[in-house]
Design brief:
CATH class of the largest domain: Alpha Beta
Structural class: alpha+beta
Strand content: 15-25%
Distance between the termini: 34 Å
CATH superfamily of the largest domain: Ribonuclease H-like superfamily/Ribonuclease H
Helix content: 25-40%
Shape: globular
Largest sheet: 5 strands, mixed
Number of helices: 9
Oligomer: single chain
Order of helices and strands: HEEEHHHHEEEEHEHHEH
Strand order of the largest sheet: 7-6-5-8-9
Number of strands: 9
């Protein structure tokens, strides 16, 4: 159990009460919990899963593999190929499951794992090779994780959203992704194939924007429950000019009727000053690495 709070007396009272009710031992400041390592410094709190990654490489016989700089080959498009050579389904599922747990502190693995997890019931050799590449990347970046810093000057909620239109070869569905930041610290992220086939890139971006906004609004409510109310509007960064223009334009056009619900939802939040849509260049869109296999230069930058 992890006990946390900003009142040391209250924490102590809770621990004493729990000690009376259960057999328990105080292990001191948090250092290791369910495979997640916690380090503290003047810069803040750092979370990583180095030991978990090392154990995973050892168990899979990949500890001596050649490391590589990205988890996904650039422009890779996986699909179910006719007459494909099947891989060991049980081993594939166990390995992907283990990798998914390592993604708790590794947003850089999110897109790669969202791709390989789509073939859990019918994995082929090309899918197994994609998983092996993730392990090779893991070896090159064992110590990566998330740093939470104190930042009293920067307290807003920010969300970066992006989408890749019709990027999935098998069913031509799209992939959307988002990163959310609170006080300049990354707190949640997601890379997911959309549930329906989109008719336009604007529709894809609107769905992606809506998902990112849902997450940001949930974080806003969570912060309110914790006694912190941000007066600043949510900053939602989307690099699709057409989607941003339609969101700001109250006139309903025939060409946007298929995204009407998403458009009204976003427009309502804009009118209520709950969110803003600042301009962002495509080369600064962090969520790009959650929707497609980018170059090693772009991946390293983000």
């Amino acid at each position: 159990m992890v006990v946390t709070g900003n009142d040391s007396e209250e924490r102590k009272a809770l621990q004493e009460y729990l000690s009376r009710e259960f057999k328990m031992k105080d292990l001191g400041p948090l250092k290791y919990f369910l495979g997640i390592e916690v380090s503290r410094s003047n810069k803040g709190i750092f979370l990583s899963q180095r030991k978990y990654a090392l154990d995973l490489l050892q168990e899979t016989g990949m500890s001596g593999c050649q490391p590589i700089g990205t988890p996904v080959e650039e422009c890779l498009k996986l699909c179910v190929e006719p007459n494909q050579v099947l891989a060991d389904k049980g081993r594939y599922q166990r390995l992907v499951g283990r990798l998914m747990y390592s993604a708790h502190t590794r947003p850089d693995l999110a897109y790669a794992l969202s791709i390989v997890s789509q073939f859990m019931h019918n994995p082929g050799e090309q899918h197994k090779n994609a998983v092996m590449r993730i392990l090779r990347y893991l070896k090159s970046a064992l110590g990566k994780g998330i740093l939470f810093t104190k930042n009293s000057d920067h307290q807003s909620i920010e969300a970066y959203t992006d989408a890749d239109w019709a990027g999935v070869v098998d069913d031509r569905r799209s992939t959307s992704g988002y990163f959310t930041f609170v006080g300049g610290n990354l707190v949640t992220w997601r890379s997911k194939k959309q549930n329906v086939v989109a008719r336009s890139s604007a529709e894809v971006e609107f769905r992606g924007m809506t998902l990112g906004l849902y997450e940001a609004l949930w974080l806003r409510l969570l912060l309110q429950d914790l006694g912190y109310l941000s007066r600043q509007p949510i900053q939602l960064f989307c690099d699709n000019k057409a989607a941003c223009d339609i969101a700001h334009n109250p006139v309903q056009h025939d060409r946007t009727k298929h995204v009407e619900v998403h458009r009204f939802f976003i427009n309502e939040k804009l009118d209520d000053k709950i969110m803003e849509l600042p301009k962002i260049r495509s080369e600064d869109q962090l969520a790009d690495i959650l929707t497609k296999a980018v170059s090693s230069r772009m991946f390293s930058k983000f």
